[in-house]
């Protein structure tokens, strides 16, 4: 009898007509009527595949099991970091397409979409490292890796002597941040926080930070206007083409060195001596202070390295198909560089900026939009001039007149828009309208004309 009592006191774990076929756990009753839940194989599988906080096997005593579990955990966390990562399936397809010599249009399109999730992964890994390094080093890291995709694509294009694409992509990245990203931030943030009818409100941000960064952008605009003006003067004096190019290269390389020094000084100003003026770096709410990284520094660094290599491969095939695309589709190189490539490279930053603007964190949104533009104008573009100097490519700061005018006008409009430290959806619509006008203009103008 005692044996029967003991058997009856234990909950029955076998299946019967009440056992659920699909469930995260089995719900069983003991003699007291209480339910006991037992994990099933289905729940273990879901945890292994989709739980970004825990992966079974990470605490195993077996080194091989622990290493495999940790590798899968890093992969899983990275894949689940962004909804756009479902496009990662296009990465191997794009590499196969480029290596197998598929149709140039297919190669360009597939690798175009492959770079979008890779840019998101780069952004995620950078943020994970920044959480460990703190504000100052984290800001410097974001300054370095924030525009990694554009830098990689531009270096590949520069090596391929596609200087027009490099210049257009640099200018396009600046314009997409100043007009497209900031315009979307102002527009959607302004709609979300527009106030009541007849009693509208505006969003606010640090006017000191905006004015400082706009001054830097005006300086970068001047660095493009001067080479164009010098070229026009030399052109009127009937100078030989070699002499004109030599003069432009000397001016561009000297200016690039000065701009890089100013950018380094700007980083010290922003991150060290006057960090209190840049609320984008200090506007951290309680949730963000308690945020802990999902990846360790070593794992995040490995993700950065692997992703950077994949971006370089996809960029190689993307740039290699541009000439054929221009001939077959009739799209100008300037439109590809100015509009398409920057949208790919800045996709993750675009989403981040708009989301924080809707949450009424305009200092953070402005930091992403204007800060990234300064990185390109004062850091990446001069760096590419120096890289071209080293590898024997005549990369200069002499942009085409049409491109220079578009950039100067955009900086002027943005400066007037942000100088009061307030924004609304009408200002956002104006910035978006200017960006669309510029995009249509470059789409309409054939490569031969520019």
UniProtKB/TrEMBL annotation:
<feature type="region of interest" description="Disordered">
    <location>
        <begin position="1"/>
        <end position="40"/>
    </location>
</feature>
<feature type="transmembrane region" description="Helical">
    <location>
        <begin position="246"/>
        <end position="269"/>
    </location>
</feature>
<comment type="similarity">
    <text>Belongs to the Ca(2+):cation antiporter (CaCA) (TC 2.A.19) family.</text>
</comment>
<keyword id="KW-0109">Calcium transport</keyword>
<keyword id="KW-0106">Calcium</keyword>
<feature type="transmembrane region" description="Helical">
    <location>
        <begin position="137"/>
        <end position="158"/>
    </location>
</feature>
<dbReference type="InterPro" id="IPR004837">
    <property type="entry name" value="NaCa_Exmemb"/>
</dbReference>
<feature type="transmembrane region" description="Helical">
    <location>
        <begin position="80"/>
        <end position="99"/>
    </location>
</feature>
<feature type="transmembrane region" description="Helical">
    <location>
        <begin position="170"/>
        <end position="189"/>
    </location>
</feature>
<keyword id="KW-0813">Transport</keyword>
<protein>
    <recommendedName>
        <fullName>Vacuolar calcium ion transporter</fullName>
    </recommendedName>
</protein>
<feature type="transmembrane region" description="Helical">
    <location>
        <begin position="106"/>
        <end position="125"/>
    </location>
</feature>
<dbReference type="InterPro" id="IPR004798">
    <property type="entry name" value="CAX-like"/>
</dbReference>
<dbReference type="GO" id="GO:0006874">
    <property type="term" value="P:intracellular calcium ion homeostasis"/>
</dbReference>
<keyword id="KW-0926">Vacuole</keyword>
<dbReference type="GO" id="GO:0012505">
    <property type="term" value="C:endomembrane system"/>
</dbReference>
<keyword id="KW-1133">Transmembrane helix</keyword>
<feature type="domain" description="Sodium/calcium exchanger membrane region">
    <location>
        <begin position="301"/>
        <end position="443"/>
    </location>
</feature>
<feature type="transmembrane region" description="Helical">
    <location>
        <begin position="425"/>
        <end position="445"/>
    </location>
</feature>
<dbReference type="GO" id="GO:0015369">
    <property type="term" value="F:calcium:proton antiporter activity"/>
</dbReference>
<feature type="transmembrane region" description="Helical">
    <location>
        <begin position="335"/>
        <end position="358"/>
    </location>
</feature>
<dbReference type="Pfam" id="PF01699">
    <property type="entry name" value="Na_Ca_ex"/>
</dbReference>
<feature type="transmembrane region" description="Helical">
    <location>
        <begin position="364"/>
        <end position="390"/>
    </location>
</feature>
<dbReference type="InterPro" id="IPR004713">
    <property type="entry name" value="CaH_exchang"/>
</dbReference>
<comment type="function">
    <text>Has a role in promoting intracellular calcium ion sequestration via the exchange of calcium ions for hydrogen ions across the vacuolar membrane. Involved also in manganese ion homeostasis via its uptake into the vacuole.</text>
</comment>
<feature type="domain" description="Sodium/calcium exchanger membrane region">
    <location>
        <begin position="105"/>
        <end position="271"/>
    </location>
</feature>
<dbReference type="InterPro" id="IPR044880">
    <property type="entry name" value="NCX_ion-bd_dom_sf"/>
</dbReference>
<feature type="transmembrane region" description="Helical">
    <location>
        <begin position="402"/>
        <end position="419"/>
    </location>
</feature>
<feature type="transmembrane region" description="Helical">
    <location>
        <begin position="298"/>
        <end position="319"/>
    </location>
</feature>
<keyword id="KW-0472">Membrane</keyword>
<keyword id="KW-0406">Ion transport</keyword>
<dbReference type="GO" id="GO:0000329">
    <property type="term" value="C:fungal-type vacuole membrane"/>
</dbReference>
<keyword id="KW-0812">Transmembrane</keyword>
<keyword id="KW-0050">Antiport</keyword>
<feature type="transmembrane region" description="Helical">
    <location>
        <begin position="209"/>
        <end position="234"/>
    </location>
</feature>
């Amino acid at each position: 009898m005692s044996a029967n009592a003991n058997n009856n006191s234990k909950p029955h774990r076998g299946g019967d007509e009440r056992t659920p076929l699909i469930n995260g756990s089995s719900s069983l009753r003991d003699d007291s009527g209480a339910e006991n839940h037992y994990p099933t194989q289905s729940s273990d599988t879901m945890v292994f595949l989709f739980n970004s906080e825990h992966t079974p096997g990470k605490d195993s005593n077996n080194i091989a099991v622990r290493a495999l579990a940790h590798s899968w955990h890093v992969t899983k966390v990275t894949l689940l970091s962004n909804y756009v990562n479902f496009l990662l399936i296009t990465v191997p397809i794009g590499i196969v397409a480029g290596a197998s010599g598929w149709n140039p249009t297919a190669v360009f399109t597939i690798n175009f979409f492959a770079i979008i999730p890779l840019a998101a992964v780069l952004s995620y890994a950078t943020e994970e490292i920044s959480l460990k390094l703190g504000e100052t080093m984290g800001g410097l890291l974001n300054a370095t890796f924030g525009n990694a995709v554009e830098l990689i694509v531009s270096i590949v294009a520069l090596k391929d002597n596609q200087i027009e694409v490099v210049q257009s992509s640099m200018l396009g990245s600046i314009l997409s941040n100043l007009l497209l990203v900031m315009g979307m931030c102002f527009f959607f943030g302004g709609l979300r926080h527009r106030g009541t009818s007849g009693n509208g409100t505006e969003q606010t941000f640090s006017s000191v930070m905006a004015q400082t960064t706009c001054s830097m952008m005006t300086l970068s605009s001047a660095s493009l206007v001067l080479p164009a003006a010098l070229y026009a003067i030399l052109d009127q004096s009937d100078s030989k083409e070699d002499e004109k190019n030599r003069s432009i290269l000397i001016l561009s390389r000297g200016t690039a060195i000065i701009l890089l020094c100013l950018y380094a000084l700007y980083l010290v100003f922003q991150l060290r001596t006057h960090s209190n003026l840049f609320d984008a770096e200090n506007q951290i709410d309680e949730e963000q202070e308690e945020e802990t990284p999902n990846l360790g520094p070593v794992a995040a660094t490995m993700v950065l390295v692997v992703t950077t290599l994949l971006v370089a491969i996809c960029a190689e095939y993307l740039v290699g198909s541009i000439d054929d695309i221009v001939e077959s589709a009739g799209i100008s190189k300037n439109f590809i560089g100015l509009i398409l490539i920057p949208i790919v490279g800045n996709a993750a930053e675009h989403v981040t900026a708009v989301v924080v603007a809707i949450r009424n964190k305009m200092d953070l949104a402005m930091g992403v939009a204007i800060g990234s533009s300064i990185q390109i104008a004062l850091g990446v573009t001069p760096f590419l001039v120096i890289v071209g100097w080293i590898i024997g490519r005549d990369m200069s700061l002499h942009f085409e007149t049409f491109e220079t005018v578009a950039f100067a006008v955009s900086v002027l409009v943005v400066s007037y828009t942000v100088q009061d430290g307030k924004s609304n959806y009408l200002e956002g619509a104006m910035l978006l309208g200017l960006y669309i006008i510029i995009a249509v203009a470059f789409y309409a103008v054939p490569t031969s004309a520019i």
